[in-house]
């Protein structure tokens, strides 16, 4: 089904080569400083909102095509900036409307969303994880309604703080999954509550009680058939792995741990 005319879509399809490492909370500041030294740049840190969708219809017996989870991702605006804009646009009245829409100063429907559909990693002898990724960025319009019209329903929602740095062709991210505090049992349901509200951001808590982080080093290649670019990307990742040796162990992820198929 094509998107509505008012909802512009910019698609991208690429092969992602990657390595991963588990970073204990105590090592996170040191690792970030080391990578900043290697890249010669300060990290760009953002708070992302992730919505995970699954097809409404289960896979039928004998059906050959696999069904996959779909993600919607957006960047959460700075909380203080949102509060200032809310006050400027109508003071208390605007604040009330935002609360009715699902969260103080945060309206999930007006967020700029992008989709990410990930294939299960290939069965390969490459020294990196390799899989196909399809992405699309939406323009103006209701992306949530579009995903619903395509036959998907919300499975789970969470937030993620992500620090990003670039080393040659390698995109390096340090990420941590965050959850908002549960709503009080006696509270009345708020429209949009199922999507989660990041504000106040001070209330977000790591999903992992140990507060650990995930380091991901990834190279994007336009096509899995471009053997030369694939080899170049693999060698870049191997070189970065050597640079980080002694600080952390960058390894191929367990294939089934990255399985995005719906069972």
UniProtKB/TrEMBL annotation:
- Which keywords does UniProt give here? Activator, Nucleus, Transcription, Transcription regulation
Leader sequence residues? none
Instruction: Respond yes or no to whether keyword Cell membrane is given for this record.
Output: no
Q: Which InterPro entries match?
A: Mediator_Med18
Q: Which GO terms describe its biological process?
A: regulation of transcription by RNA polymerase II; termination of RNA polymerase II transcription
Q: Name one GO cellular component term.
A: mediator complex
Query: What is the protein name for this chain?
Result: Mediator of RNA polymerase II transcription subunit 18
Which organism is this protein's natural source? Choiromyces venosus 120613-1
Gene name tied to this protein: MED18
